[in-house]
Design goal:
Elements lengths: L1 H15 L11 H11 L2 E7 L7 E7 L12 E6 L3 H8 L2 E7 L21 E10 L3 H14 L10 E14 L6 E2 L2 H6 L2 H14 L1
Length: 204
């Protein structure tokens, strides 16, 4: 019993270390939204044309909203000349992953590591599509250009894209990964979520 209580203490300590706004591990939809809003880059996986069907992964800048707004949507500013975009032209189903490790969490120690289950990480799978709706294009532009100030200087063949999410895979604790419900994910109000997570930590 003492060992179990000590492990729970370590898990709670790890959950709040670093960024004070990280939701507790039992709030899975909130954790997924936190990961995508706090991160500004991740890794996108495609099926490679160049390598005839082998997987291909590369880092990509993205944003789900400006500093104060979280949409939950994964927006990108891409050129069709890019290697991943060539793959997407043939098969636009992709996976995209971000981790708390890129936010300064999970620094390798004797009890933490980026690959350890207590290091929050999420993978989204869906269709990588051009944003065509004018209102959504404005949202995408604000989300990306506000957090990536170099982007507006990129050449004219770049355009706004979004992953239309089909599934969300999250791991943030021992015991296996979870499939996050899409409705719950999009229902998260990040401003409320941050207050809730502070309240929950006060109860630990």
């Amino acid at each position: 019993m003492v060992t179990i209580l000590f492990l729970i203490f370590l898990l709670c300590a790890n959950a709040v270390a670093g960024d004070k706004t990280k939701p507790p591990f039992w709030k899975q939809a909130e954790t997924a939204r936190w990961l995508v809003h706090e991160n500004i880059w991740g890794s996108v996986a495609t099926i490679s044309k160049r390598m005839e069907g082998l997987p291909f992964v590369q880092p990509k800048s993205f944003s789900d909203g400006n500093e104060t707004t979280s949409t939950g949507n994964l927006y990108f500013y891409e050129s069709t000349m890019d290697e991943s975009m060539k793959d997407i032209e043939a098969n636009n189903m992709v996976s995209f992953s971000v981790s708390a490790a890129s936010l300064g969490h999970c620094i390798p120690t004797s009890h933490t590591d980026p690959e350890n289950p207590t290091c929050a990480k999420v993978t989204f799978t869906g269709a990588f599509e051009l944003v065509t709706d004018e209102q959504e294009r404005e949202v995408a532009e604000d989300a990306l250009f506000s957090r990536h100030p170099m982007m507006p200087t990129w050449p004219h063949d770049f355009d706004f894209y979004v992953i239309r999410i089909k599934s969300i895979w999250l791991i943030d604790i021992y015991g296996g990964a979870k499939d996050v419900d899409l409705e719950e994910y999009y229902a998260v109000d990040n401003s409320v979520n941050l207050k809730d997570s502070e309240r929950d930590r006060n109860l630990v």
